[in-house]
């Protein structure tokens, strides 16, 4: 199944200040998320930002929010973003069949959101170099489970080029500069 610019929205899940320093390879995660969000903004993807219990885990990293603002931030206490009625109302209102997901922790909130998106007939597109957990093995097992359940796996670079589809795309040169 090919991913196109017209049929996606992007979910940024729980990339929060107080949790972030404990995430494995967090500097690389931030670099990849920055690159992807810049590209998806150029390609006009709608964004949905979720925060898990921000009182304890802090706010979404400001450097990420700056890339996609103004964007509404949805507070949640459930691990799956889909268990929040305001988030599901927003997802439904977008009328997009595919969700690009990035965030933390891969084995908790990202996993449960992907499984619930599938249950709600929305195809999750998991950007594996833009998700993480505190421990590498947690991310690896979560990816296997998501793959077994029908989640489409991709990488930041692969997704951005797939969305451009051609070097003649109006944003191709800008996307190419992000990738370099």
Which descriptors would you attach to this protein?
single chain, 180 residues, Rossmann fold, 8 helices, globular, alpha/beta, 6-stranded parallel beta sheet
Topology:
Blueprint: E1 8-13, H1 26-42, E2 47-52, H2 54-57, H3 62-68, E3 73-76, H4 85-94, E4 98-104, H5 106-119, E5 123-132, H6 136-148, E6 152-154, H7 156-164, H8 172-179
Parallel strand pairs: 1-2, 1-4, 2-3, 4-5, 5-6
Strand order of the largest sheet: 3-2-1-4-5-6
Shape: globular
Low confidence ranges: none
Helix content: 40-55%
Strand fraction band? 15-25%
Give the SSE order as H and E letters.
EHEHHEHEHEHEHH
CATH class: Alpha Beta
**CATH homologous superfamily heading:** Isochorismatase-like
Mean pLDDT, all residues: 96
Main β-sheet, in a few words? 6 strands, parallel
CATH topology tier name:
Rossmann fold
Structural description of this entry:
It contains 8 helices and 6 strands. 46% of the residues lie in helices and 20% in strands. The model has no long low-confidence stretch (mean pLDDT 96). The chain has helices at residues 26-42, 54-57, 62-68, 85-94, 106-119, 136-148, 156-164, 172-179, and strands spanning 8-13, 47-52, 73-76, 98-104, 123-132, 152-154. The chain is globular, with a radius of gyration of 15 Å. It is of the alpha/beta class. A 6-stranded parallel beta sheet has the order 3-2-1-4-5-6. 38% of the residues are buried.
In short:
The chain has eight helices and six strands. With 180 residues, it is of the alpha/beta class. The relative contact order is 0.19.
């Amino acid at each position: 199944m090919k991913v196109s610019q017209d049929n996606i929205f992007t979910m940024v899940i729980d990339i929060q200040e107080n949790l972030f320093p404990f995430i494995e390879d967090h500097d690389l995660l931030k670099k990849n998320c920055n690159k992807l969000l810049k590209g998806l903004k150029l390609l006009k993807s709608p964004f949905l930002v979720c925060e898990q219990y921000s009182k304890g885990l802090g706010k979404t990293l400001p450097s990420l929010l700056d890339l996609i603002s103004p964007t509404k931030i949805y507070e949640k206490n459930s691990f799956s973003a889909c268990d929040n009625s305001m988030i599901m109302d927003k997802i439904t209102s977008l009328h997009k069949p595919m969700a690009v997901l990035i965030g933390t922790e891969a084995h908790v909130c990202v996993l449960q959101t992907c499984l619930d998106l599938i249950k709600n007939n929305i195809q999750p597109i998991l950007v594996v170099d833009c998700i993480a957990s505190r421990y590498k093995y947690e991310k690896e097992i979560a990816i296997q489970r998501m793959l077994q359940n029908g989640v489409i796996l991709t990488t930041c670079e692969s997704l951005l080029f797939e969305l451009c589809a051609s070097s003649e795309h109006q944003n191709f040169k800008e996307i190419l500069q992000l990738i370099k």
